[in-house]
Design a protein that fits this description.
Chain lengths: 193, 193, 193, 193
C-alpha cells in the first residue's frame, strides 16, 4: 500500500501555486508515494469561515501533509488561516496525531518575515500532535538549493513578477527537495509503524 | 487636541470582546485621550477578503492602535488576519509609520501558544513601521495583574465559560493596565512631536 | 539493538534538572530504549565558549535528543546557547541529520515567554536537519498533564520554591509523557530505517 | 541636555562589529544625541556568567539601547545571551522601564533564521518594559536599504568574507538608517517626557 502525502496550499497570485507544484513534483517522484495537490479556494470561505469536508477527509487519509501559504503582512494568508481555524474539531479528536507535517512559504523579500510563517505552520502542526520535518538542506551547493537560508521549511521569493518567472528555478528546486525529503521520511515512518 | 487611541479587535465567542472592553476602559480613563473601540465583523469578509473603509479611516486618524484577537489554532483568528492582509495598501503608502501599536490575545490554556499571536501582532506592526508598546508589568502584585506572565502584550484566559466569567477579573485588570500604559505612552509620544 | 535517546539539559537552580529527570524517566520506561541524562556544566564554558567532546560524541550516537533549558530573560539560558553554538561543526558536517529532537523548558510564569524558548530549540534542531516531535498532549485530562497548554514541547513552572516542590507533580508528569512519546516515536523511526 | 543612546553588541568575527559601527554612525549624526558604542567581551564571561558593572551602568544612563548580535545556530550568540541573562536584577527593579530598544543581527544566509534573533531581542526588551522601535524601511529604494526585507530590526549578511567586505555597503546603510531612526524617535520621546 502506498504512503499518502498531500500538499495543501493557498495561493493568491499564482506564485505559491508554482512552489506547491514543485513540492508536489518532488514528493510524487518518490517510490511508493501517492502525492496529491490541493489548493484552498476563496469561495470556501463564507462570512470569515472556511468549510470543505472533502479536503478535510483527504487530509484525514494522509500520512503526511505539507502546508504552503504566501507570507502576507508578516504571517500566513488569512485564507490559509481560515482553513487552519476550521480544523479545531480534528484537533479536539486528535485526528491528526502522529501524521507528518512540513511547510513552505513565498513572499517578496529574501527574509520578508517568512520565518514567522514557518513558525506558525509548525505551531499549527504541533497543536495537532503532528511530527515536523524541516528542509534539511544547507545553501552550500551549486544549484541554489536553499539559497535563502531556511531550515524549518522551504522559502521562495516572488514580488510582482509573473508566476512563470518567480519563484525562480532555484527556489522551485528547493521546493522539490522539501517534497522529496518529506516523502522519504513518510515512507520510513510508515514502514516503522 | 486629544490623543486618539483605537482598540481594534475580533471576537468569535465574546471573550476577547470582554478583554477589549477592559483595555478600552483603561485607555479611556487617561486624561487627554479619546479612545474608540471597534470590533471586526465576519460580514466584512467576502470570499476571504476583508473590506471596511470606515474602519481603516479610523485607524488612519489614530495616534495609537491596540490590536486584539483570540488565539485560534496557535495564531491570530483568520478574521483578524483578513483585516491585517487588507492593510497592504496602507503598508505600501507607509500610512501608519510611527503610530504606536500594542496587542492582546485570549485563549484557553495558560500558555496556549498565545505568545505566538503576540509575536504576530508585533510583526504586523513592524511591517507598518509602528512603534511597539508592551505590557510593562510583572506578575509580582496582589491583584493578579499579569498573572500569566506575558510581556509583549496582555494575555487573557477563557475556554468554554460564559464571557461574563472569563477572562477573569485579574485578566481584565491586566487588559486595563495595558490600555492605560499605551494611552500614557501615546500622550507623551504626541507631546514630543 | 536498543534505541539511544539522550536528555541533554542545563539547570541553573535545580528546577530544570527535576524536569529533566522526569523526561528521562518517561523515556527510560519504554521498551528497547536506552536513555541517558546529561547536564551541561558551567565549567565547560571558558571565555564564553562551551567545549565537551564526550557530550558531543554521546549525542552523535543518539537516535533522539531531548533538549531542556530554563527560560531566562525570554529565551534559553546562555549556558545552553553556548552548547548550541558549539555544535556548528556538527551542523556543517550534517552529522545530526534525521535524528529526532524534542524540547522542554521551565520558568516562573504560566506563559513566561517559554514558547519562545521552545521555538528556539525547534529552530536549532531544524538547522541540524533533525525531525521534531512535540508534546502531543492536550490539557483535557484529570492528572494535570499539559496544564499550561504547550504543544511544541513540555513546559514546567518554578519560581523561588525549592526544586523538590516545583515544577509540581503535574508538570513532571507532563515531562514524563514527553519522554515516553519521543522514545516511542524513536523506536518506530528506527524500525522503519 | 543630550539624548543618550547606546549601541550594545557582541561580535565574534568582526562582521557584527562593522554593522554596529554603521548603526552607531547613523545615531551619532542626529542632533542632540550622544551615542556610545560598546562591544561585549568574552573575558567578561566566567563559568558561563557575564559580569561588567560599568556596561550595565552605561545602559542605566541611556534613553535608548540598540542591541546587536550575530545569529548563531538560529538565535543570538551565547555571549550576548550571557549579557541578557545578567540583566535579571535590572529586570526585577524595573530599571529599564520605558527606555527605547531596537536590534540588529548578522548571519550568512539572506533569511538565515535572523528573524528569530530579532524576535528574541524584542522579547528581551519587552521583559524589561522597554518600547520597541523597528527599522521602519521598505526595500523599495535604489540604495539597497533593507534589501533583505526585515522589519523588526536591521539585518546584515556575512559568511566567510573579511569584515571589510561583508556586511556590504547596502547592509551597512540599512544599519545607519536604523541608528538614525532610533535616535530621532529617542529625541522625540525624551522631549515628550
Amino acid at each position: 500500500m502506498k504512503t499518502n502525502l498531500t500538499v495543501l496550499y493557498f495561493s493568491g497570485t499564482g506564485h505559491t501555486a508554482k512552489m506547491a507544484e514543485a513540492v508536489h513534483r518532488g514528493a510524487a517522484a518518490v517510490q511508493d508515494v501517492a502525492a496529491a495537490l490541493i489548493g484552498l479556494r476563496n469561495e470556501d470561505i463564507v462570512a470569515g469561515r472556511w468549510k470543505n469536508d472533502e479536503t478535510l477527509a483527504r487530509l484525514d487519509a494522509s500520512d503526511a501533509v505539507i502546508f504552503g501559504t504566501p507570507t502576507y503582512m508578516g504571517g500566513p494568508a488569512s485564507q490559509f488561516k481560515a482553513f487552519a481555524d476550521a480544523t479545531s474539531e480534528r484537533w479536539f479528536q486528535r485526528a491528526w496525531l502522529n501524521k507528518l507535517a512540513a511547510g513552505f512559504t513565498v513572499s517578496g523579500g529574501p527574509s520578508g518575515d517568512k520565518f514567522n510563517t514557518l513558525v506558525y505552520l509548525f505551531t499549527f502542526a504541533m497543536q495537532h500532535g503532528m511530527v515536523w520535518v524541516g528542509l534539511g538542506e544547507t545553501p552550500f551547493n551549486d544549484q541554489g538549493i536553499n539559497r535563502l537560508g531556511a531550515y524549518g521549511g522551504a522559502m521562495g521569493q516572488a514580488l510582482m513578477e509573473p508566476p512563470e518567472e518567480a519563484p525562480n528555478a532555484a527556489d522551485k528546486l528547493t521546493g522539490e527537495m522539501l517534497g522529496k525529503r518529506v516523502a522519504e521520511v513518510a515512507v520510513r515512518w510508515r514502514r516503522g509503524a
